[in-house]
Batch of 2 targets.
Target 1
Amino acid sequence: MFRSCLTNRGRAHDVGRPARSSRPASFVRSIKSALHSTADTPVDTPSPRPSSVNLHKQKTEQGAELRTDTATLPQNIFPTNVRPPTIEFNPPEPDSRLNDTQQLARCLGLLQSPNESDDMDLAARKWLHLTKNEPDEKDRLKALATDVIRAFKRDELKDAKSVIEVACLAPVLDKDDFRYLLKEFYSGIDQSGLLDVHQLEGIAHLVQGAHPGYLDTDDLVKVLGLLSTRLRDTHQQSTSYIYQLTLAVSHVLDAMADAAVKGLDREKIHEPLSSYLDGLKNSTDAYLVYQAAYAYQALMYVPDDESLAINTPSNRKSRSGSVRSCECRERTGSQWIH
């Protein structure tokens, strides 16, 4: 993707196509695998897929059996003994070509960090001191990031390699570049008749790693509405697509809960999505059950518009008055007259 856009400001060498990450690994893990050295990246043995999920049941006071929302998941689906990642960083010489997009992201991340961390190696510390005093070099690196986004927009295929390349820049982009990339992912998902899993993972990564103030409440609501519609329109037997969509919905709902988003449309988004996620808890796929349960709980932290209207001070006062009048009628034996 770089070969057509970075001829004047410095060329970043093309990186090899990364291996597709399989469930339950997330897109974020795919990004990290490109940043970490092979020696420090743990190799997990895939856990066997459980054949069923046991749902807890309890009995009411009348003896009727009532199923709760709690699902028992086997512990062997979670990775164990995962070593913390180590990021290797070889800083470039001033005004020289970059090796790849990850090196560019690392450079911009160092320039944006307010303080030098104690674990920063000597080479990175030296590069940071030199570059901070060179405004032209900082502008060049920012321009390179913008060029990567422009090249991504021109790319007609937008395969997994391209999405990973551009998404790793998301945490270090300026607000305008970030929002431009977000709109590109949104349009790609919205206009695609068949689900584009790569762009789906890209928009989930953007929402998850956005800086405060980069995403407006309306942005999150529109992204959730799009993903919710695609999720409910996906065929029930396409469990892989449903899993990816549910995972993306979880990331968006996390961001909405952190931003204290309220007033989600109950009829169009909240109620249909909660009902669909609740139905996924009956799946035999333990990974899907886990993501659906997580997304369902996250959705409960985003109040809908009707619940907000019910809890307004005037409505609370009205309800309390109605309750008091009912209590009075019960005490006096009065009844409605029709």
Target 2
Amino acid sequence: MALQLDDDRTQNPMLDAIDTAVGATGSLIVYSGAQPANCSSANPSGELVDITLPSPAFAGASGGAMAKSGTWSASATGTGTAASFRIYNSTGTQDGTTCIMQGSCGIGSGELQFDNTSISSGQTVTVSTFTLTAGNDS
């Protein structure tokens, strides 16, 4: 039988800890470069957009899931195809020391999905939905 975690006592607190780690000055950066091996690796190439996240960045976890909170939107500063993203806990130091999570971008695939992955400088980029889900539901 597979390992199972209780929503209220383990899954939700784990997700809420992610929001705490993002903190009050978090940011989401979308890149055209591929997702690195881990958060400690150098940033991907091709920064497309830097979105300052609201505080809190996520709504409180419930049922083993946690959705984004507020509006995640900014004007693109680069042009390219969204391939990866990172969420940082500091808008001042966006590197492997402050990377909280990273993932891939796509249309119908990837952890951060867009209706169109082609981004042009000056374009408004908005993340309409983003939900983290804890595994091993009881």
